[in-house]
Amino acid sequence: MWRNESESGTSLDEVIEQPNPPNTGMGELSEVCPICLESYPIDVLSFHASTCGEGMDPAHHSDAASMTRTEEMPGPSVQRLPATVSAAWANEVDPRKACQLFREELLERNYECPRLFLSIDLFDAEEETDSSLISFFKMNNVNWAAPLKCRLRGDAAVGQGVNRHVLSMAMQKLKTGFSINLGCVALTSLFEGEMEHRVPSAAAVLRESNLFEMAGRMIGHSFLHGGFGFSGLSVPVVTLLTGGSTDTAASALTLLDCPDLDHRETIGFLKNTQLTAQETTSVTDLCLSWDLPVPTSTNHDWLFQELLSHAVLHRVRQPIKQIRKGLKETGIWPLVSNRPDVHPILFPREKNDELNSQTVIQNIHWPQPKSDSDEDEDDAVPLEKVGLVTGFLRQFIEEASPKVLRDLLKFWVGWELLTTNLEVEVVTSKYPVALTCFLKLKLPSHYQTYEKFHQDLMMALSSISSGFGLV
């Protein structure tokens, strides 16, 4: 369930098709494009937004990026995002610091805007939860830089930890698929292919339902709130998404970028010095179906590139435009278009996104003895117990698989993104709990063996899909 200013429900039919509000007939209204700052009639602004920023004159773009506010134009009462906020992020050498500066300034400028509210009922079926997420991110005419408040019905959790948990859930669904039935399968995946070579699905129903535009909003919104980038995309797809040319994207293509295994095998025949009769027939049939010349003894290399470009880039041209449009609507496009060095942060490689034990341990603030503590001595945990339990935690992290480490961080802070200043406290309690807003993990002091500690902590981690206790 989502709410923006007022609560309302949405059926699955409304999730799949949410048209833009019609013109009210008050004359030809116009809006200012937040990218180029030009005024356009409302009925053509949507089309313009899908291409704005591509091929823009650099000097014009620089001027647009330096503006801090736009002139109010007559039109619907909708909050609009500024093109950008200052030059600080543009001049920052460190790309991660530039991202942080951009986020902080954009969110600060929209701090007093009507907040966005997203509520997830933990007792809903998975299909209903996914429907709520889709409904929220398919909302039109939304200021995505407005303050965000997420709520988990059925859980006592409140605060930023809940926001992190919900954004993590949305990004995970975007990777693995949504439990909505669009007439073919129960699980609908927007991306296909293998790790590091995923491309948008070519299914027409996904394009017609504007689900890729929703995907762009999810990616931009998560990034805007300091969350995950979207890892594992094909490099040529990232090139097109971030405003690169088709020729540059095509030059980076490999066979692994082709998600259709039959097409991949057929196109791969052209790497052979000589084709068998059966291979020639297969390649010829594919060329004719795509209106391309048939193979000859001299055009194998050229034809290989043309077939591969058609199999990967041509089929996902419209989905990429929709994703880019969704990214622009979240307000992050000035950063993306002006800072190519942030692209690996927004669209990281999965191998670089993997957690390891030592990195997690290095970011933990371990308990230290306090000689001047005001804590009641009757409630204080003896130092030997603190040392024993924190030693168990260190052993748990060192032996954990990448998946268990992700679950631990999600339990600890609300999402799987590694955070500095992780806190550990050993307390008198029965089970492990997490104060996700404060990045604090509270561990019971009663453990005498690692086996019991491991059992209870794994039980706690299994609860992350249905809530995560105190925040």
Automatic annotation (TrEMBL):
Annotated GO MF terms: ubiquitin-protein transferase activity
Instruction: Tell me the Pfam families matching this sequence.
Output: HECT (PF00632)
- Active site, UniProt feature: 437 (glycyl thioester intermediate)
Record region (Disordered): 1-25
For this protein, the record's SUPFAM superfamilies field holds: Hect, E3 ligase catalytic domain (SSF56204)
For this UniProt record, give its keywords in alphabetical order, as a comma-separated list: Transferase, Ubl conjugation pathway
Residues of the HECT domain: 428-471
Q: What is this protein called?
A: Uncharacterized protein LOC117553447 isoform X3
